[in-house]
Amino acid sequence: MKYLCLAYEEESTVNSLSQSEWDSLRKETLSYVKELQERGQPIAVEPLQSVRAASTVRVRNGKLSITDGPFAETKETLGGFFLIDAKDLNEAIRIASHWPSARLGSIEVRPVEAGLKEEKRY
Fold this sequence. Notes:
122 residues; alpha+beta; Alpha-Beta Plaits; 4-stranded antiparallel beta sheet; two-stranded antiparallel sheet; 6 strands; 28% helix; 35% strand
């Protein structure tokens, strides 16, 4: 089954890391991605640009509204994602728990629905 893992961090926390701390975290992350690749589990792993580059789009009553930044009022913002193939939720959670930035923020693990089903909502 596919699971989307959303990595949330506070940009200020990440930006406050020393160069050596950042290099260590990045090296650990790349090593973990390689380990997952060797097991055939990651489908996609992508970082996102800063939340300062984000736009939130809404259409209400046919009118377009664009807001700079994310919609949620939170300190932790979406920093990236990884899409994985895991046998079940427990395995997906285990994989997410080893993601290095989970120590700085949080990883949301969400099952991917197989196709858009007309009869089903969230």
